[in-house]
Amino acid sequence: MTHSPFPLAITNQGDNVGRIAVVTTLGPCAGAISAVVVGRLVAYRESKELQRFSLSDACNGALGGLVAITAGCATVSLSLSLSLSLSLSFSLFLSLSRVLIFFF
Description:
By secondary structure, the chain is mainly alpha-helical. It has one domain. It is built from three helices and no strands. Helix 1 (about 15-45) packs across helix 2 (about 55-70) and helix 2 (about 55-70) packs across helix 3 (about 80-104). The chain is elongated, with a radius of gyration of 19 Å. The termini are far apart.
């Protein structure tokens, strides 16, 4: 028996760590895809012509996806992480982009 300075040793947590890493990666991916698609649809609706994909929309969507999934990444499933990230980044993108356009 070894005497560790850390009394709460974490053992056999590889499957949890792997799932947390996958969920945390899926969050920004789904958020970026959602924001790019919504941004392109909004731009098409406003100008009636196809616009290019926006890198800033993708970065903002990835950030929104991270915000949506980070708190619960240890407890949610993969499918729930995709749906949470898609829905929350979609609503964050629409609401915050409208607020920025209104004030600036």
